[in-house]
Specification:
By secondary structure, the protein is of the alpha/beta class. The protein is built from eleven helices and ten strands. It has a single domain (27-330), classed as Alpha-Beta Barrel (TIM Barrel). The chain binds ligand PBG. The site of ligand PBG has 12 residues, from helix 6.
């Protein structure tokens, strides 16, 4: 610690813009951002998501346009989530394994349109494909069966990898899925496909607008507490991260974001591995609601919250504000 002395004035370095720039400890850049995009069927379709003001689901052509925009803005990666048509959802979520599903078509279209200019991160979990909205397969008691689900997730991950996904991001919280996916990628001749595991994912009340966007919210009858983590737990998050790293994850994620920055900081300090956070849909909606209500200035709220992620130790942040933030950072 700095000893106190008579002429210590902490405000001295804050007194002008150039000096604040010089002393800034954390710098946010477009390259820190991952932009989540919602894919829907059709051509030229753009459907606003009511609970996520400013965010739309787009058909594959529009998703490619968004990916091009990301490249222009210096955003290195997009994350894809499908809104599977209702008639393709089933108890076993088998549409996830269809090589021609929305997700695979979007992956291929981005890879055809943008080549290696952008990374494509894909979500592995069954909730956008199941008729019950859970992330896995249900046993007779309605419990999400772990090992049976992992077997399907492996096939889902391979389906996405074969379509050209660069980063597989399992968001399901089943035990053992990272190892199983890593082995399948190695055996399946996709050794360079990365795994970013949603390692510490909490059973959060902040996911509501996302579930509207992928159309699973209305289907979900109960909660996800038997697999997603208890928001009260921090030690358990470190065990989850340790395990996923041992199983072969290249990077880990903490989710949600802002209410869990303590977890981000502990994970980064403990393991020193690439650590990402997801500023989730409910967090985005809160910022938009505050701005719309005149309770805060939107641009400032966006940049302050994203900078806070970096200060806590994040390597990067998934945020629906990615394009907006990148434009602010450019300007
Ligand atoms: C699904 C998944 C969820 C999110 C990302 N992947 C929702 C959930 O677990 O119910 C949430 C993202 C957000 O709220 O922005 N496995």
């Amino acid at each position: 610690m700095t000893a106190s002395y008579p002429n210590l004035r902490m405000r001295r370095t804050r007194s002008s813009g150039w000096s604040r720039a010089l002393h800034r400890e954390t710098v946010l850049a477009s390259a820190d951002l991952i932009w989540p995009l919602f894919v829907t069927e059709g051509e030229g379709v753009e459907e606003p998501v009511g609970t996520l003001p400013g965010v739309s689901r787009r058909s594959v052509d529009g998703i490619v346009a968004s990916a091009r925009e990301a490249v222009e803005l210096g955003i290195p990666c997009v994350a894809l989530f499908p809104n599977t048509p209702p008639d393709r959802r089933s108890d076993d979520g088998s549409e996830a394994l269809n090589p021609d599903n929305l997700m695979c078509r979007a992956i291929k279209a981005i890879k055809d349109g943008c080549g290696s200019d952008i990374g494509v991160l894909t979500d592995v979990a069954l909730d956008p494909y199941t008729s019950h909205g859970q992330d896995g397969l249900l046993d007779g008691d309605g419990y999400v069966a772990n090992d049976e689900t992992v077997a399907v997730l492996v096939d889902q991950a391979m389906n996405q990898a074969e379509a050209g996904a660069d980063i597989i991001a399992p968001s399901d919280m089943m035990d053992g899925r990272v190892r199983a996916i890593r082995m399948a990628l190695e055996m399946g001749d996709r050794p360079n496909v990365q795994i970013m595991s949603y390692a510490a994912k909490y059973a959060s009340a902040f996911y509501g607008p996302f579930r509207d966007a992928v159309g699973s919210g209305g289907l979900l009858k109960s909660d996800k507490k038997s697999y997603q983590m208890d928001p009260a737990n921090a030690q358990e998050a470190l065990r989850e991260v340790e395990l996923d790293l041992a199983e072969g994850a290249d990077s880990v994620m903490v989710k949600p974001g802002l209410p869990y920055l303590d977890i981000v900081a502990r994970v980064k300090d403990t393991f020193g591995v690439p650590t990402f956070a997801y500023q989730v849909s409910g967090e985005y909606a809160m910022i938009e609601a505050a701005a719309a209500a005149g309770a805060g200035e939107r641009d400032a709220l966006v940049l302050e919250t994203l900078t806070a992620f970096k200060r806590a130790g994040c390597t990067g942040v998934l945020t629906y504000h990615a394009a907006h933030a990148a434009r602010l950072l450019d300007g």
